[in-house]
Amino acid sequence: MGRDKNGAGAKPDKSGSNKPGSKVSGSAAAGPKPVADGPVADGPVADEPLDDAPVSDVPADDEPAAVPDSTSDSAPEPASGWKRVGQLLRPRGTRSELLTGLLCLALGFALAVQVGQSTGDQLSSLRQDELVRLLDEVTQRAEQLDAEVSDLEEIRDDLQSEDGRDQAARDLAQQRAEQEGILSGRLPAQGPGVQIHVADGAKPLEAQALFNLLEELRNAGAEAIQVNGVRLVTTSYFVDSGGGIVLDGAAIASPYEWTAIGDPDTIDRALEIPGGALPRIREEGGEATTTTSDEVLVDAVRIPGQPEHAEPVAPGDEK
C-alpha cells in the first residue's frame, strides 16, 4: 500500500522551512501571537517583552496604590523665628556666666555699703557729747518755734475780737517797730547771750576767720551782735587791709570783743563744734574763749541806710 509523498508521514525540513509549493496556514504566516494582558493559565510565559508591545505607566485598576512608609525618616521642619529667639535667650549655666553673675552681685553689695556709709559719715565722725549737743539745739529750736506760733495765734485772736481790735493793732505795731529796730541795729538791745574774746596769736588773724564767726553766730540764732563797739547788721563785712582788718569801712584791731544776744547754751555749743570758727582760730594760733551770761548788753546802734535799688511793692501789685 503506497503513501503520498506529501502526506502525513513526510518529514519536515531540518532547516525549519517548507518545501516550495507547500501551503502555510494563516496563523503561522502572520508570525507569533501577542501575549494577552491577563495571566495565561496554560503554556509557557515569555521571559522577554515584545518590542512592539506598549508599556503603560499607569497601574491597573485592580492593583492597590503604593502607600508611603510612615516609619521612614523625614527631613526636620525648620524652626520658627520665635523659637529661634527662645533658643538664643535660653540661659546656659556656663562657668563664665556664673562667675560674671557672682562678680555683679559683689559689686552691687559694695555699692550699697558705700552709699550707706557716705550718708552717715557726717554724723558718725562726731563724739557722743557732740551728738547730744546737736540734739539739744534742735530741740530748743523746735520749742522756740512752738512759742512763736503760740504768740502769733494769740495776736490773731486779739485782732479778730471787736473789743480789743484797736488796742491790739497799736500794740502789734509797737512790737513790730521794736523788733525791726533791734534786727536792723537801730535800737540797743539786752538779754541773755554770750561774750566772746578773740585775739591774734603769733600770726595775725585774717578777715575770713572773723566772718566765719559772724556766720556761725547768726546760724545759732543770735539776734543782736556787736564787736569792738560796732553793731553788725545784714550788710556788715570784713576785709583784710594793710595787715589789719576793716569792718564796715572802719579799722578794728585785736583783741576782738564780741557780744551776742541769744540762747547762751545753743550759741556756746554751736561755736565749739569741731571744725567750727573757734576751733579753727585756735588751730591758727589765736585765742578764743566764750563766756555765757543771763544778761548782756548790745548798746551799739546803726542808722539804716536808704535802699538804692529796692523799693516796697504797692498793695495789689504782687505777682
Give an account of the 3D structure.
By secondary structure, the chain is of the alpha+beta class. The chain has a domain at 188-298: Protein of unknown function DUF881 (Alpha-Beta Plaits, 2-Layer Sandwich), CATH 3.30.70.1880. It has eight helices and eight strands. It has helices at 26-29, 81-89, 95-124, 128-160, 165-184, 207-219, 264-271, 277-283; strands at 189-199, 224-227, 230-232, 238-241, 244-247, 250-252, 256-261, 287-298. The strands form two sheets. The chain has a five-stranded antiparallel beta sheet with strand order 3-2-7-1-8. A three-stranded antiparallel beta sheet has the order 4-5-6, with helices on one face. Helix 4 runs antiparallel to helix 5 (165-184) and helix 4 (128-160) runs antiparallel to helix 7. The protein is extended, with a radius of gyration of 62 Å. The model is unreliable at 1-64 and 70-75 (pLDDT under 50).
